[in-house]
Amino acid sequence: MLFVLLVLLLGLVAYNFFLLNQRNQQETQYLALTTDIQVRAQQLAKAAGESAVGNFDAFDELSRTRDIIDNAIRTLRRGSPATGLPPSPAQVNDALSTLEQLWSRIDGFAGQILDRTDLVIELADSAGAFSTNIPQLQAQSDEVVRRMIETGAPSVQIYVASRQLVLADRMLRRVGDIMAGGTGAITAADAFSRDANLFDRVLQGLINGDEGLNIAAIR
Questions:
Q1: In DSSP terms, which residues pair with 210 in a beta bridge?
Q2: At what angle do helices 155-180 and 117-150 cross, to 10 degrees?
Q3: Same-domain status, 100 and 157
Q4: Integer distance in angstroms from the first to the last C-alpha of the chain?
Q5: CA-based, 20 to 30 A from 88: which of 4, 71, 130, 199?
Q6: Model-level pTM?
Q7: Are residues 38 and 127 in the same domain?
Q8: Backbone angles phi, psi at 80, to 5 degrees
């Protein structure tokens, strides 16, 4: 949705430049910048979606396109001494300010994806293997709970062990969310990391004990 708004706002900015009725080289440069940003915005949206599902090449494309758009918007605002282009005229200030505010939000979103590059790629690479092994992990966890009940283990330990089944199921759903892409993939990747760390800590606690989690080792 943000990308659609960005394209629409760019159309408004371009229209404001057109209304200046100054058929000169400067106006041509302004319009060329807005047109280029419109095209790049579509490329950015595509790269963001592909990056979120672990497409390694898309991360580079996302970074490059983000920088190009950012530089173009800065040029519209400040001009370019290198080409002799002055800052945008006052008549387009309102539309340009709105564009800058929207770009700030999109730029932040792109930055979040790029900050998690390693995590997203790692999870995407291992998603298939993880999904295949989760049913076995759930079966083993269920067997542990059953044996604990049969041997009269404390109810607290049984509860903690049974929560491993919930965590395993939740991690499987997180993997699906990651592979689905979109903005939710980043949140799912972070949540998956937390769940996986907790699962491992609880497992080690059931084996060796963990005072922090109030888990006694299974005897």
A1: 215
A2: 150
A3: no
A4: 55
A5: 4
A6: 0.53
A7: no
A8: -140, 105
